[in-house]
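Researcher: Following up on the earlier apo prediction. This time include the ligand. It's glyoxylic acid, with the SMILES given after the sequence.
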Amino acid sequence: MTKPKVLLLGEVTQASEAWSSLSTIATIITPTSKDRASFLSETRSGAFDGCIASYRTFPSFSMTGPLDSDLISALPSSLTFLAHCGAGYDQIDVAACASRDPPLRVSNVPAAVDDSTADTAAFLILGALRNFNTSMLAARKGEWRGRPEPKLGHDPQGKVLGILGMGGIGRNLARKMRAFGMEVVYHNRNRLPKEEEGGADWVSFEELLGKSDVLSLNLPLNKHTRHIISTAEFEKMKRGVVIVNTARGPVMDEAALVEALKSGKVYSAGLDVYEEEPKIHPGLVENPNVVLLPHMGTWSVETLKKMEEVAIANVRSAVEKGKLETPVPEHKDL
Ligand SMILES: O=CC(=O)O
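Model: Understood. Below is the ligand-bound prediction.
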């Protein structure tokens, strides 16, 4: 009997056991393309015909570009399941996937990323609050703390951490930062049930902006959240606020952040994500008060392995049962 075909977009590097076991029930098809134009020709030439499910990674974007309606309509109609190996799925137009005939059902990896992304946010909060960036760079250049010495940093104890987006990552971060003595407030469109708040107080969006000493962005990117933080929002914040973003670059207007840093409204920032990755706004690169990471939120052996296992389990379930295990919320009833 011929095995069902699965299209691999990207690489599986950690979950080798789960992947080899999937290979026993499915034939894995790997594209030869390196860019979007050749990927579109490859799929239009019929190279992926018969594939029923696809496993994709965040970095496979460099080969396919966005999974928008052009690309979705070029994929073979046999392909009806897409398992994304990541929590955020803003690279995929899930509405276009749902309205295709037949629909392309999409899954993501929700909880597996919570610890490592929250750890990354915690690192950036401490680094930005304590203003460690200048002296870390100076030490490597043999300049001790740097000349002139950096401004004294601030302790987290007794400061208000405002979390915008209290999903799994936000709740995990709240728990960790309370151990550093921070008081936590959050804003979410819907207030969480008391038992899930973990002692954090729900506040309105305006109150969150006005109350936070540190504001952490932990919300997904979609058309409602693009540039949710821009000039008008910075104006409502306390002078000297610290901004941390481990969600997606475009939830914040980067040019507005650069201005707010220059004016001193924002004391420092800790960033893992950028509006035009892999480019980083020059105004952020040259500002010594900004701690920069190049999208390392889930960059750990343990987390990547867990993420890959969940995405592989979705492909397996698609092949064996004709359904995904962790569909994205928009596709729950598809
Ligand atoms: O950025 C990482 C993810 O969305 O999983």
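Model: The longest helix spans residues 301-321.
Researcher: Noted. I'll compare it with the apo version next.
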